[in-house]
Amino acid sequence: MNKGKVTILGAGLVGSLLSIYMSKRGYKVSIFERRPDMRKEQIVAGRSINMALSDRGWTALDGIGIGDEIRKISIPMYGRMIHSVKGELTYQQYGKENEAIYSVSRRELNCKLMELAEKQPDVEIYFNERCLDVDLESNEVVLENLKVNQKKKVYGDCIFGTDGAFSAARLKMQMNDRFDYSQTYLKHGYKELTIPANADGSWKMEKNALHIWPRGEYMLIALPNQDGSFTCTLFFPFDGERSFNSIKTEADLVSFFTEIFPDTFELMPTLIHDYFHNPTASLVLIKCEPWNYKDKLMLLGDASHAIVPFYGQGMNSGFEDCTVLNRLFDEHNGNLSTLFPEFSKVRKPDADAIAELALRNFIEMRDLVGDPVFLLRKKIEAKIFQKFPEKWMPLYSMVTFSDIPYSEALAEGIRQDGIMEKIMAIPGIEDKWDSKEIEDMILNNL
Ligand SMILES: Cc1cc2nc3c(=O)[nH]c(=O)nc-3n(C[C@H](O)[C@H](O)[C@H](O)COP(=O)(O)OP(=O)(O)OC[C@H]3O[C@@H](n4cnc5c(N)ncnc54)[C@H](O)[C@@H]3O)c2cc1C
Fold this sequence. Notes:
Blueprint: E1 4-9, H1 13-24, E2 27-32, E3 50-53, H2 55-62, H3 67-71, E4 74-77, E5 79-83, E6 89-93, E7 101-105, H4 106-119, E8 123-126, E9 129-135, E10 140-145, E11 150-155, E12 158-161, H5 168-174, E13 180-195, E14 209-215, E15 218-224, E16 230-237, H6 250-260, H7 262-265, H8 271-277, E17 281-289, E18 292-293, E19 297-299, H9 302-305, H10 314-331, H11 336-368, H12 372-387, H13 395-400, H14 406-424, H15 429-432, H16 436-445
Parallel strand pairs: 1-2, 1-12, 2-8, 5-14, 12-19
Antiparallel strand pairs: 3-7, 4-7, 5-6, 9-10, 10-11, 13-16, 13-17, 14-15, 15-16, 18-19
Helix pairs in contact: 1-4, 1-10, 2-10, 10-11, 11-14
Bound molecules: flavin-adenine dinucleotide.
């Protein structure tokens, strides 16, 4: 039964997934995407951005039966491999045995989602169509075809803005009365670098781990690709003594890498080319409220809550938007005039919480993962979690391996911080951390 026409702006990760959900609910869906069809574009060497997919993402994919398609193109990462300046390796398991986050190529994931969307009977994707404006009263979107430079208007019974952090749909909402909006840039940016595969196609480092080189102000991470390579991301300040702006020559770069990330230098034969050719990108945090305009327009994904990437939850939270919206469709019998404001209301605190957690995790990743006190604390928490899983779930597990609302995970994490601060202050904790005395103290504080 056709329930009406839906317009989706942006065929990125969230828009493509959302289209499948809406089609399964009986809507006729038209997606308008600014870029050309990436499935027909040539892959640009050294631009193989990959991302970590975790439980919330899987729940959304499995919710419409496409998780297994994506599992085929993903690599499990069971823990962090921390690289010290001296090249020593420390492995930290992320969760329980077999719990993993999954490395997947953004491009492959997006292509697969578009392919699966187009297999639905009622989904059409139109490429090279840039949204210029949304008429909030008439439900019309003004589009410009970037190939033929022609403008047109299309009507939808409702419109979803999944057009990313610089959403045109949101811009229209910003001109509306009583719409809160904030945009903050980090002083760090990022650049993609590559560790290629060995000649036989194997990986040069442990493949089932997320590699981290934590160095305070600088941080390098690497995620495995299916072709044996790793995509690395250098997080680096834009300005300062050592920064994107200060590294001007090949000699500057070589001197920086051999001092700060010495064990990567040999692994990156194209470092100099990649560094000077790949773009430097900024990191933006976007918050806004409300996410809907009546029953006409709803923002999802980065369009309403772009966060920094340090918890690997931007896409996962956007996918979870689809799960929550789908649940509310049932609860509200598909009545958009009640479910749109409700979605905006229930989801906003969770988006704010993951934004906060992601900022905190930057500090944890770049400063703490190499710190012995932090590592001991993680060891104690892991032990308590293993023995008393119903009483203590570490914050990372709540965020990554559960669907506990982000806002509840943040609150519980703050409570756990309070307990662990007291425990870590106990004299001689490094010798008696595994004792019954410490275990009892933690349990009594819960
Ligand atoms: C360095 C980095 C690493 C990351 N790693 C992870 C990770 O490991 N795990 C994770 O969960 N998240 C990660 N993220 C976050 C993740 O990339 C985003 O949260 C996710 O891409 C959001 O999906 P989206 O569909 O909302 O937006 P996007 O992916 O940005 O898609 C928006 C789409 O809309 C289109 N569009 C834009 N404007 C218009 C317009 N005017 N008209 C029509 N179409 C338009 C765009 O072309 C695009 O296709 C990372 C982000 C960064 C920057």
